[in-house]
Amino acid sequence: MAKRDHFASKIGFVLAAAGSAIGLGAIWKFPYMAGTNGGSVFVLLFIISTLLIGLPILLAEFVIGRKGQADAITGLKKLAPGKKWFLIGWSGFFFSFIILSFYSVVGGWILSYLGRALMFSLNNSGESYYANLFDSIIANPWEVLLGQAVFMLLTILIVQGGIEAGIERASRIMMPALLIFFVVLVIRSLTLDGAMEGVKFMFVPDWSYFTAQTMLLALGQAFFSLSVGVAGMMTYASYLPKEQKLGNSAFSVSLLNIGISLMAGLVIFPAVFALGYSPNEGPGLVFIILPAVFEQIPFGAFFMLLFFILMLFATLTSSIAMLETVVSMGIKNAYDKRKRSSWIYGLLIFLVGIPSALSFGVFSDVKIFGKTFFDFADFLTNNFGLPLGALMISIFAGYVLKKQETFDELNISSLTFTTWHLIVRYLAPIAIIVVFLNAMISVFRG
Fold first, then answer.
1. What is the pTM of this model?
2. Where does the chain cross the membrane (predicted)?
3. Exposed/middle/buried for 225, CB within 10 Å: 0-12, 13-18, 19+?
4. Quick one: CA dihedral 395, 401, 403, 409, positive or negative?
5. Inter-axis angle of helices 386-395 and 55-68, nearest 10
6. How many domains does the chain have?
7. Tens digits of residue pLDDT in 247-289
8. DSSP structure class, residue 296
9. Are 315 and 23 in contact (CB under 8 A)?
């Protein structure tokens, strides 16, 4: 039987874990959530929520994963023998599978834009062109299926290589490149005339937006952007050697997630304000408004190309974490089956994702509880899967794991440990339940 793989270095693990968290949530969702909720106040509440709630839950996943030293299902069985806590692992398996099935569809859209950007055909077109282009891409069955297939192929090729040779190596290339591209784009955006209005929008508080709803939305964004609740971080932590400090790694991942989210805002909002667009355009901000912004600046086609490469890297680093979570639980201890299982599960995820890919064209009239396949899969995972998983992880770390063993595993100061333990036992579960109930109320209100 093949030996269990491990991350070769702390930086490799941190980059891979950060890549799992830094995906469409940071680059696509954060800017439009901030843009539609007043900017600066939302940003401030997001940072506080990430550090106060998201970070402790992330650390809880790291503790469980490394103590288990196995896939999430096997590890939880080892830590709580004879109990049903291993169902957290099965929940992570199912929801990672479903998330990747529609996440890969968006990855395909990005590839479609990237292909056009590579041919420099996304310029001198006007805003209405981009709105029509987006609608035509997502409605074209052959283009969306081809994009989804290519995106899943890239994901499979990385995951089949294993932790050190596949995931860690890819993360060491893509994450630094992503950071460099972001710095270039931020500098370009900040040098536009009128860019400071966008900076003020992000960092000068308008306290009229300080409402209970904004607090809940910021908490939800912080929580979901760290990619906790589906056993992905637990899976990555299971490949860590004992000598690595979990607290430092979790803090580094959280800071990188905050940093990339802020940089995404600094790419988008200064450019949007400088060129007279509205920041509250919603989900279309990246696919419709931003290309229209880029084409109005010198060398805009080049910067647009950089942006969609950046989007691809960020999306891939998240998708490989989701596929790895599924594959690790599928092969359990049979590590020599990794390559075959990566292809089998990758193909199955692609097939399950076909209805989501066709939701805006061929299957646009097919509804589940009034939602398309794509929207239903998104709703199911974001409103049920992630909160449920994170709640159970928080309870398991706070109440099931032995306090002294957890303290020894974390290797942090007594004060820091006590603070963390109180958060995962009390504050985090309450916050998760509040976000969950708020989401349910919003759904039933329509």
1. 0.90
2. 7-28, 40-64, 85-111, 144-163, 175-196, 216-239, 251-277, 297-323, 343-364, 384-401, 422-444
3. buried
4. negative
5. 70
6. 1
7. 888 998 999 889 989 998 998 888 888 877 777 766 667 787 7
8. T
9. yes
